[in-house]
Protein backbone atom coordinates (compact mmCIF):
# COMPACT_ATOMS: atom_id res chain seq x y z
CA UNK A 1 0.00 0.00 0.00
CA UNK A 2 1.35 3.47 -0.85
CA UNK A 3 0.17 6.97 -0.10
CA UNK A 4 -1.79 8.49 -2.94
CA UNK A 5 -0.65 11.96 -3.99
CA UNK A 6 -2.77 12.26 -7.13
CA UNK A 7 -4.05 15.70 -7.88
CA UNK A 8 -6.99 17.02 -9.84
CA UNK A 9 -7.94 20.20 -11.63
CA UNK A 10 -10.95 21.99 -10.23
CA UNK A 11 -12.89 24.27 -12.58
CA UNK A 12 -15.98 26.34 -11.74
CA UNK A 13 -19.01 25.65 -13.89
CA UNK A 14 -19.14 29.31 -14.87
CA UNK A 15 -15.57 29.02 -16.20
CA UNK A 16 -16.46 25.96 -18.24
CA UNK A 17 -19.25 27.99 -19.83
CA UNK A 18 -17.07 31.08 -20.33
CA UNK A 19 -14.25 29.17 -22.02
CA UNK A 20 -16.61 26.98 -24.05
CA UNK A 21 -18.13 30.11 -25.59
CA UNK A 22 -14.63 31.32 -26.48
CA UNK A 23 -13.65 27.96 -27.98
CA UNK A 24 -16.76 27.77 -30.17
CA UNK A 25 -15.78 30.95 -32.02
CA UNK A 26 -12.02 30.33 -32.17
CA UNK A 27 -10.60 28.96 -35.44
CA UNK A 28 -7.57 27.61 -33.55
CA UNK A 29 -9.82 25.05 -31.86
CA UNK A 30 -11.39 23.47 -34.95
CA UNK A 31 -10.96 19.67 -34.76
CA UNK A 32 -9.00 20.00 -31.51
CA UNK A 33 -9.45 18.77 -27.95
CA UNK A 34 -9.43 21.66 -25.49
CA UNK A 35 -8.42 20.73 -21.94
CA UNK A 36 -8.97 22.74 -18.77
CA UNK A 37 -5.82 22.60 -16.64
CA UNK A 38 -5.56 25.81 -14.61
CA UNK A 39 -2.41 25.42 -12.50
CA UNK A 40 -3.83 27.58 -9.69
CA UNK A 41 -6.61 25.01 -9.24
CA UNK A 42 -4.51 21.83 -9.14
CA UNK A 43 -4.97 20.18 -5.73
CA UNK A 44 -4.60 16.85 -3.99
CA UNK A 45 -7.55 15.90 -1.84
CA UNK A 46 -5.49 16.74 1.27
CA UNK A 47 -4.47 20.16 -0.10
CA UNK A 48 -8.12 20.89 -0.83
CA UNK A 49 -9.08 19.85 2.70
CA UNK A 50 -6.32 22.01 4.20
CA UNK A 51 -7.54 25.03 2.24
CA UNK A 52 -11.07 24.41 3.52
CA UNK A 53 -9.78 24.07 7.10
CA UNK A 54 -8.12 27.49 6.79
CA UNK A 55 -11.43 28.97 5.63
CA UNK A 56 -13.45 27.53 8.51
CA UNK A 57 -10.61 28.03 11.01
CA UNK A 58 -10.75 24.51 12.40
CA UNK A 59 -9.30 21.09 11.78
CA UNK A 60 -11.35 18.24 10.43
CA UNK A 61 -10.88 14.66 11.57
CA UNK A 62 -8.96 12.49 9.13
CA UNK A 63 -10.34 9.24 7.73
CA UNK A 64 -8.25 6.84 5.68
CA UNK A 65 -9.96 5.26 2.68
CA UNK A 66 -8.16 2.57 0.72
CA UNK A 67 -8.46 1.94 -2.98
CA UNK A 68 -10.30 -1.27 -2.12
CA UNK A 69 -12.77 0.71 0.03
CA UNK A 70 -13.50 3.02 -2.90
CA UNK A 71 -13.95 0.16 -5.36
CA UNK A 72 -16.26 -1.67 -2.95
CA UNK A 73 -18.34 1.48 -2.45
CA UNK A 74 -18.50 2.01 -6.21
CA UNK A 75 -19.71 -1.56 -6.75
CA UNK A 76 -22.54 -1.26 -4.21
CA UNK A 77 -24.63 0.64 -6.79
CA UNK A 78 -25.98 3.13 -4.23
CA UNK A 79 -26.70 6.57 -5.63
CA UNK A 80 -25.01 8.99 -5.07
CA UNK A 81 -22.40 7.23 -2.89
CA UNK A 82 -21.28 4.79 -5.60
CA UNK A 83 -20.93 7.58 -8.15
CA UNK A 84 -18.83 9.69 -5.78
CA UNK A 85 -16.65 6.68 -4.94
CA UNK A 86 -16.18 5.86 -8.62
CA UNK A 87 -15.22 9.43 -9.56
CA UNK A 88 -12.93 9.74 -6.53
CA UNK A 89 -11.15 6.52 -7.52
CA UNK A 90 -10.83 7.53 -11.16
CA UNK A 91 -9.57 11.04 -10.39
CA UNK A 92 -7.43 10.62 -7.26
CA UNK A 93 -6.24 7.00 -7.51
CA UNK A 94 -6.07 6.45 -11.27
CA UNK A 95 -5.12 10.08 -11.97
CA UNK A 96 -7.39 10.32 -15.01
CA UNK A 97 -6.94 14.11 -15.28
CA UNK A 98 -3.17 14.16 -15.06
CA UNK A 99 -1.79 10.82 -16.22
CA UNK A 100 -1.36 11.93 -19.83
CA UNK A 101 0.53 14.67 -21.59
CA UNK A 102 -1.04 17.22 -23.88
CA UNK A 103 1.52 16.56 -26.58
CA UNK A 104 -0.59 15.72 -29.61
CA UNK A 105 -1.16 18.32 -32.32
CA UNK A 106 -4.88 18.08 -31.54
CA UNK A 107 -4.41 18.88 -27.82
CA UNK A 108 -4.88 22.45 -26.63
CA UNK A 109 -5.02 23.85 -23.11
CA UNK A 110 -7.43 26.68 -22.28
CA UNK A 111 -4.99 28.78 -20.22
CA UNK A 112 -2.53 28.73 -23.13
CA UNK A 113 -5.20 29.74 -25.62
CA UNK A 114 -6.56 32.55 -23.45
CA UNK A 115 -3.77 33.65 -21.08
CA UNK A 116 -5.52 36.94 -20.24
CA UNK A 117 -8.74 35.24 -19.14
CA UNK A 118 -8.49 34.04 -15.54
CA UNK A 119 -10.04 30.93 -14.07
CA UNK A 120 -11.94 31.34 -10.83
CA UNK A 121 -9.84 29.96 -8.00
CA UNK A 122 -10.96 27.28 -5.56
CA UNK A 123 -9.96 29.74 -2.85
CA UNK A 124 -12.50 32.28 -4.19
CA UNK A 125 -15.18 29.59 -4.47
CA UNK A 126 -14.62 28.61 -0.84
CA UNK A 127 -14.76 32.29 0.21
CA UNK A 128 -18.09 32.67 -1.57
CA UNK A 129 -19.47 29.52 0.02
CA UNK A 130 -18.46 30.62 3.52
CA UNK A 131 -19.99 34.09 2.95
CA UNK A 132 -23.26 32.47 1.79
CA UNK A 133 -23.35 30.33 4.93
CA UNK A 134 -22.92 33.48 7.03
CA UNK A 135 -25.52 35.36 4.94
CA UNK A 136 -28.03 32.52 5.39
CA UNK A 137 -27.34 32.55 9.12
CA UNK A 138 -28.08 36.30 9.27
CA UNK A 139 -31.30 35.90 7.25
CA UNK A 140 -32.49 33.15 9.56
CA UNK A 141 -31.69 35.04 12.80
CA UNK A 142 -34.72 36.32 14.70
CA UNK A 143 -35.06 39.61 16.59
CA UNK A 144 -34.99 39.45 20.39
CA UNK A 145 -37.46 41.28 22.60
CA UNK A 146 -36.96 45.05 22.35
CA UNK A 147 -33.27 44.93 21.49
CA UNK A 148 -33.47 44.62 17.73
CA UNK A 149 -31.72 41.90 15.84
CA UNK A 150 -29.00 40.05 17.72
CA UNK A 151 -26.71 38.03 15.55
CA UNK A 152 -24.16 35.71 17.02
CA UNK A 153 -20.99 35.29 15.03
CA UNK A 154 -21.79 32.29 12.86
CA UNK A 155 -19.42 29.42 12.50
CA UNK A 156 -19.20 26.96 9.67
CA UNK A 157 -19.75 23.53 11.17
CA UNK A 158 -17.33 20.75 10.40
CA UNK A 159 -19.81 17.96 9.94
CA UNK A 160 -17.61 16.37 7.33
CA UNK A 161 -14.23 14.78 7.45
CA UNK A 162 -11.08 14.68 5.40
CA UNK A 163 -10.32 11.56 3.40
CA UNK A 164 -6.77 10.35 3.01
CA UNK A 165 -6.58 8.01 0.02
CA UNK A 166 -4.32 5.00 -0.29
CA UNK A 167 -3.86 2.83 -3.35
CA UNK A 168 -2.90 -0.83 -3.28
TrEMBL record:
Gene3D superfamilies: UDP-galactose 4-epimerase, domain 1. The keyword Oxidoreductase applies. SUPFAM superfamilies: NAD(P)-binding Rossmann-fold domains. Its EC number is 1.17.1.3. InterPro entries: NAD(P)-bd_dom_sf (IPR036291), NmrA-like (IPR008030), NmrA-type/Isoflavone_red_sf (IPR050608). Residues 10-121 form the NmrA-like domain. It is an enzyme of class 1 (oxidoreductase). The keyword Oxidoreductase applies. Keywords: Oxidoreductase. GO terms for molecular function: leucoanthocyanidin reductase activity. PANTHER family: LEUCANTHOCYANIDIN REDUCTASE, PINORESINOL REDUCTASE-RELATED. This is Leucoanthocyanidin reductase. It comes from Opuntia streptacantha.
Amino acid sequence: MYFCFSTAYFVAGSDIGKFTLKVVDDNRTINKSVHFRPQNNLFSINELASLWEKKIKRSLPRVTVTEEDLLNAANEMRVPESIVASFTHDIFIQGCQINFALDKPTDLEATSLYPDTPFRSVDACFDEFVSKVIEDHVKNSKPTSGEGLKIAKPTVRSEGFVITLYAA
